[in-house]
Amino acid sequence: MARGAEPAGERRRCGSVVAYFTSAKFLLYLGHALSTWGDRMWHFAVSVFLVELYGNSLLLTAVYGLVVAGSVLLLGAIIGDWVDKNSRLKVAQTSLVVQNASVILCGIILMIVFLFKTQLLTLYHGWLLTMCYILVITIANIANLASTATAITIQRDWIVVVAGEDRSKLADMNATIRRIDQLTNILAPMAVGQIMTFGSPMIGCGFISGWNLMSMCVEYLLLWKVYQKTPTLALKSAKVEESELKQLNVKKESDMKPAEGVQLIVEKDETGFEPQQEKEVSCAARIAEPFITFRDGWVAYYNQPVFLAGMGLAFLYMTVLGFDCITTGYAYTQGLSGSVLSLLMGASAVTGIMGTVAFTWLRRKCGLVRTGLISGVAQFACLVLCAISVFMPGSPLDLTVSPFADISARLFESEPLPTIASPEDKPEMVFATGMPNLLNGSTTPANSDPEMSPEPVPLISVSLLFAGVIAARVGLWSFDLTVTQLLQENVVESERGIINGVQNSMNYLLDLLHFIMVILAPNPEAFGLLVLISVSFVAMGHIMYFRFAQKSLGKQLFVCCTPDPKAVSDSSPPGNTSTV
Predict the structure, then answer these.
(1) Which residues cross the membrane (predicted)?
(2) If we measure between CA atoms, which residue out of 497, 570, 573 comes closest to residue 149?
């Protein structure tokens, strides 16, 4: 009996493993991992390519960043509306093909520019080369917009349908998606950076183009498999009853019958009246349609019950307390080497993954809304260390130095602007860390003298700064997952695209403001002031979320209890009762 039971148990285990690796959930993870890996490689490499092409100047990189942020800010609602009005498979496949085809085309153009840059400079007084730069930035921006559409449809819609009515499964899937993001954020730039360091930028372009071509085919197949395994993805309501606002998902296709007030997008083409109506639409109405969509999207976002929670998340983007080029550039002025910074970035990825684990545990113990409160308190408590670091030994804070002194000096000086780094320093600056120094023209501390050995800068201030930034990632990513699931659970299915598109626009708007803030005060002496402003914006974001939680839970806000796993989560909009 025992010997016969062992093979049966092994067969069941093998069957469970095979069932998991062929499930829609795993296929969705695999497709997201491939997509994110390609995205991270491209986003890292395109900035490096633009710096390399434009004589070690950040001008093209800055223009590219501004174009990307401005495009998502203006077109986020329109992209979301397009996601809502079309079938899920069509949206996912179209955005996938446009994104990868744009990256492949950009890679080919960049390879041509790297090969024939000298000849292009002599043609038409260099205007042909300038047109190549404009073309690369334009196509790269299209790729980013398509990536935004992919993220909205997969991470905000498909994942909800695949999870079904199980909110715990939805929370676990959201957390796994974020863990994949954290790992690819570190590993993908390292991989492509090594290829460009030991090969050449042209080889890097070819590798990224080849990767995206292969990845596009595999992802296309995976999307089709997920679509086949989840029949409810074929059903997408264009109008949902107000009473259905709280439903996490529609029923399965076998149980679904179009009710009164529900219209399926798959039925849209079968109606004989719509094409005739489209012919009667005037040209002015067609021109005005994107502006109306933009307005309606922002109005709908404002009227959402989770509006304050979404705004709270957006305010966290107005910060210099992250591992971007701004904070990395400041770290260089304080004497930190590229190897130390790479270790710190790795530590931040680990704490980010810890945040995803904390989210799933806290949600089970305290409910979804309270998880956001606890995560916000944890993040702000860690960022207090950053505020303290401003006043510790080693901090270059000097309020007597005008924040505009550096700008005015550079505007009126007759000598050319200093380059980012000398050719000897470039591999260490760009490829080892992936973050060029925006604050100074060298990797040495700001107070160093080339003819004298630089005085050592006390590391107490910068150590506290990065300790706070790294520790805060636990609360940050847990809070991010909380707001993400609140948007998934509380937004009408027919408005998921446009609401999440506006949310992306808000995130980009605050991110753009943080870059403007750095442009206005670029010198290291003012960085401490930027830290204090950043902490203030994080505090305001969490105050907004606290107000949302207060409206949602009322007097039960501070009641600590363990929700029933089978009960609905405590993310009801204000005015509705919920099980907590």
Answers:
(1) 17-38, 58-83, 95-116, 122-146, 306-332, 338-361, 373-392, 457-476, 497-520, 526-546
(2) 497
Token pair 């093209």: residue:
60
Q: Which residues contact 559 (CB under 8 A, 6 or more apart)?
A: 580
Residue by residue, pLDDT tens for the chain (580 residues) are 455 556 666 777 777 888 888 899 999 999 999 999 999 999 888 878 887 777 656 677 778 888 888 899 999 999 999 999 999 999 999 999 999 999 999 999 999 888 888 787 777 777 888 888 899 999 999 999 999 999 999 999 999 999 988 889 999 999 999 999 989 988 888 888 888 888 888 888 999 999 999 999 999 999 999 999 999 998 876 543 333 344 444 344 444 444 444 444 443 444 444 444 444 567 877 888 888 899 999 999 999 999 999 999 999 999 999 887 778 778 877 888 777 887 888 889 899 999 999 999 999 999 999 999 999 999 999 999 999 999 998 888 876 665 555 555 544 454 444 443 333 343 333 333 333 333 333 334 444 444 444 566 678 899 999 999 999 999 999 999 999 999 999 998 889 999 999 999 999 999 888 888 888 887 888 889 999 999 999 999 999 999 999 998 876 666 655 554 443 445 444 333 333 2
Query: How far is it, in rounded angstroms, from Cα 34 to Cα 29?
Result: 9
- Provide the β-strand partners of residue 264: 237
Q: How many CA atoms lie within 13 A of 504 on its CB side?
A: 31
| Token reading at 339 | 């190897």
Q: Letter for the amino acid at 396?
A: P
Supply the DSSP symbol for 372: H
**Which structure tokens are listed for 416?**
């050319």
What beta strand segments (E) does 35-80 contain?
Answer: none
Six-digit token pair at 218?
A: 């595999």
Which of the 8 DSSP states describes residue 491? S
Phi-psi group of 575: left, alpha or beta (phi > 0 → left; psi -120 to 50 → alpha; rest → beta):
left
Helix axes 325-333, 460-490, angle to 10 degrees: 170
Residue with tokens 């401005």: 70
Structure tokens at 72: 């998502």
Q: Which residue has the tokens 């080889």?
A: 203
Q: How far is CA 211 from CA 30, 114, 252, in A?
A: 15, 19, 36
Tokens, residue 314? 């957006």
CA distance 521 to 478: 31
245: tokens are 């606002």
Among candidate residues 274, 291, 237, 268, the one with its CA nearest the CA of residue 78: 291
- The region, left, alpha or beta by phi > 0 then psi within -120 to 50, assigned to residue 304 is beta
With b for 16 or more beta-carbon neighbours within 10 A and e for fewer, the 292-308 pattern comes to ebbeebbebbeebbbbb
CA dihedral (154, 102, 434, 452) in degrees, to 10, reads: -150
Q: Which two tokens stand for residue 469?
A: 């930034």
Considering only CA atoms, give the Rg of the chain: 25
Six-digit token pair at 81? 């509306």
Give the C-alpha distances (Å, rounded to integers) separating 20 from 14, 27, 29, 360: 10, 9, 11, 20
Residue 57: other Cβ atoms inside 10 A? 15
Q: What is the pTM of this model?
A: 0.78
C-alpha to C-alpha distance for 533 and 225, rounded to whole angstroms: 47
